[in-house]
Specification:
This protein is α+β, with helices and mostly antiparallel strands. It has nine helices and 26 strands. Strands 7-6-12-3-4-11 form a six-stranded antiparallel β-sheet. Strands 18, 23, 24, 25 and 26 form a five-stranded antiparallel β-sheet that branches. A four-stranded antiparallel β-sheet has the order 15-16-14-17, covered by helices on one side.
Length: about 425
């Protein structure tokens, strides 16, 4: 019984009998810097080599790296290098962990596990070894995160606190990813599912004292045009002293590019060459916001073909303003359309669930590209699906396959969004005030 600890001796004897000694089973294969296999024996007198298998970010103790010594001994005076970074790693002290208690140790020998505090450049999966015998041990393979959410602090101004907290948790758990999306200005945290991200939220609260909320991230749409138009942009302002005058005629047309292609075919010096860069700069600033929903514009060719100037009142600023007016006047006439990002989906699911997953892909406006048998009674489905439809796909896969299915999803390209989708996105942009 648990209170009298009856049976613990039987358990320990059983473990002793069932589990082999590290000396018998502890050999590991590593690779040298040239990629050749190296066999490491579990020998305390050999050159040291260890693998870091866990990292704990403690707000009081700091960073604690747990490692397993495969050969040699590791103590506070052991010279080690990190094989991933190539940098020397200084061990301040080594600890034996007994539950939550930390006990100082003189060394950790081959076949044993221990921990070292404050190894700044060392992450989970890194090999620490002697500079005398450099060898890389097989790290830990982690699954890729499959669910991304935007993370916001409940109290304004705590964004830095959230970012630092999540980055500390990502040191502990390599399946957590964190980034700031420069386009949508959202902090994005990615994990293996809803439960995983719920744990991140609760750890941020308990460890770092910061309250956060999760929301579906904004989808990075794009905008482009389908028609060719020619428009004038004229900026004229008369104030005391010098006025401002810039006048341009620009042709906007669709092209195949990731942003703006700028050209000119001005004849007879209607616009002096010195103002061409100002016109281009004005347009490049404008394409950050499209006419439909304020998303960046791609696939746009703008050609400056005519205009006029004033010998005194014309300036770079005036032509920059004129280019912006031409953009504002011309884009709504050029058949603007919304583009949505599509991703490549590769889902591995048990045979019995294939029909459900195919149906779900179609329901999410996806296109199935092919299927092939996988390992051990599974099917691999390849498809292309709009990114906007994939926010809760990890939950669907987990529920449908009872946790046996997995998938990878990566951005592929942009395609024109269907009218109902575009209308919804434009309405949301107006609500947020991104467009007039």
């Amino acid at each position: 019984d648990a209170q009298t600890t009856y049976g613990v001796d039987q358990l320990l004897n059983g473990l002793n009998w069932l589990a082999p000694s590290a000396a018998d089973k502890g050999e590991e294969l590593g690779t040298d810097p040239d990629g050749n296999p190296v066999e490491l024996s579990m020998n305390e007198d050999a050159a040291p080599a260890a693998i870091v298998f866990k990292t704990v970010a403690d707000p009081y103790v700091g960073k604690l790296s747990y490692f397993k010594v495969v050969s040699g001994k590791i103590s506070s005076d052991t010279q080690l290098i990190n094989m991933r970074t190539g940098n020397p790693e200084r061990i301040g002290k080594v600890l034996i962990m007994r539950g939550k208690k930390q006990e100082d140790a003189s060394y950790i020998g081959a076949g044993d596990i221990g921990a070292a505090p404050k190894l700044q450049g060392t992450n989970t999966g890194d090999t620490l070894c002697s500079p005398v015998r450099t060898v890389t041990l097989e790290g830990v393979n982690y699954p890729n995160p499959s669910l991304s959410m935007a993370i916001f602090p409940k109290n304004k101004g705590e964004e830095d606190k959230v970012a630092q907290g999540v980055m500390r948790l990502a040191e502990e758990d390599p399946t957590i990813r964190f980034e700031t999306n420069n386009e949508t200005h959202e902090m994005i945290v990615s994990g293996l599912g809803e439960q995983h991200l719920d744990v991140v939220v609760s750890k941020l609260k308990s460890k770092f004292g910061v309250d956060v909320v999760l929301q579906h991230p904004r989808v990075p749409y794009r905008e482009t045009i389908r028609k060719k138009v020619q428009v004038q942009g004229r900026h004229k302002k008369q104030t005391g002293g010098h006025g401002q005058y810039g006048d341009v005629w620009i042709e906007f047309e669709p092209c195949d590019s990731d942003s703006l292609e700028f050209g000119e075919r001005v004849v007879g010096g209607a616009v002096p060459k010195g103002f061409f860069p100002a016109v281009e700069k004005g347009l490049r600033e404008c394409i950050a916001k499209g006419p439909l929903a304020g998303y960046p514009v791609v696939g746009l060719r703008a050609t400056l073909y005519d205009g006029s100037y004033h010998p005194v009142d014309s300036s770079e600023m005036a032509f920059k303003m004129a280019a912006a007016i031409a953009y504002k006047n011309g884009m709504p006439q050029a058949g603007p359309v919304l583009l949505e990002p599509f991703g490549s989906l590769k889902a591995t699911v048990p045979d019995a669930n294939m029909g459900d997953v195919l149906g779900e892909v179609n329901k999410r406006r996806g296109r199935v590209l092919g299927m092939e048998p996988g390992e051990q009674g599974t099917q691999v489905i390849e498809a292309e699906v709009p990114m906007a439809e994939m926010s809760d796909f990890s939950t669907f896969i987990r529920q449908t396959t009872q946790g046996r299915g997995s998938y990878e999803f990566n951005f592929a390209r942009y395609e024109e969004a269907p009218a109902p989708v575009a209308q919804k996105v434009i309405a949301e942009a107006k609500e947020r005030g991104d467009v007039e």
